[in-house]
Amino acid sequence: MLKEFLYKKSTILICIIIFLLLFSYFENNSIVVSKHTIKSNKLPKKFNNFKIVQISDLHNKVFFNNNNSLVKKIKSQNPNIIVITGDLIDRRKYSEEKAMILIDKIKDIAPIYYVTGNHEGWSSKFSSLEKKLETRGVIVLRNKSVYYKKGNDKILILGVDDPSFNTEGYSEDYKDYDIMKKQLEKINDIDNKDCFKILLSHRPEMFDLYAKEDIDLAFTGHAHGGQVILPFIGGIVAPNQGFFPKYYKGTYTKANTVMVVSRGLGSSIAPLRIFNRPEIVVVAVEV
Question: 64-76 vs 96-106: helix axis angle to the nearest 10?
């Protein structure tokens, strides 16, 4: 009788362990596509249904079969541009080779626009990575802006460096947000006041600044979806926002600015994502 009881207990325990392992693998490796539609009367008519795919916070992760599943999902969206909002690499497991596996497979799908994250700044090796990105045709936006044109119509794409490039050490208690603020003010020229503006930045916690600068659409990451998302509660913790972060996934609106926060694809310090699957974000901008 005791032997039978122990056998049942062991079987149940093994089943629970197997379930948790499978659940963990699914939550951290099954990529979801999150779609949003943004409307703006500032958008030129030729740009109606302009489609943007966002990738963020890969942290050197390589998905099954050399990222083929990720590449397939990106390609299926038929984007006009691809934007990468930082932390393509991870300072703890730094690998330019892994980062380039994805870039090499998506660079011919659509033009790629890229901004840095804190891990690029912390790595102290970004100059090497930057050269490899530019060699592959990636448009690296380090405190600058570029036009994307369709005939005589155009939109402005801006990108700002992460504050980690202006901060010594690995502290998240940054004191140099003012530098980022000045850089954004500098590239957000008043001559482009009526132009539809897309901003790429790693930091969602700077939303007030983006709204103040009258950015139309901002793409950010960094929050990792709050790491764990609890039903009816939301994200649990995010860098620079602490517990129960205000900006951790999806879209947020303030004044005339819409900010998109990607949950990202990889992980860094905390290796597990719970109810928070890796995502690519697809935004269709309409008139």
Answer: 40
Looking at the fold, whether 6 and 130 belong to one and the same domain comes out as no
The two three-digit tokens of residue 203, written as one number: 């930091």
- Based on the structure, what is the number of domains in the chain? 2
**20 and 40 housed in the same domain:** no
For the chain of 287 residues, list the mean pLDDT of each consecutive stretch of 10.
73 86 85 96 95 97 91 97 96 92 96 96 92 97 94 94 77 65 81 88 95 95 94 92 96 96 90 91 97
User: What are the tokens at 136?
Assistant: 């592959």
Tokens 């001559």 correspond to: 191
Regarding whether 145 and 60 lie in a shared domain, the answer is yes
Q: Answer yes or no: are the C-beta atoms of 189 and 147 closer than 8 Å.
A: no
Separation of alpha carbons 19 and 230, rounded Å: 19
Identify residue 36 by its one-letter amino acid code.
H
Inter-axis angle of helices 96-106 and 126-135, nearest 10:
20
Domain extent for 174: 33-286
Sheet containing 279-286: give its strands across.
Answer: 32-39, 279-286, 50-55, 81-85, 112-115, 139-140
Nearest to 44 by CA among 148, 189, 185: 148
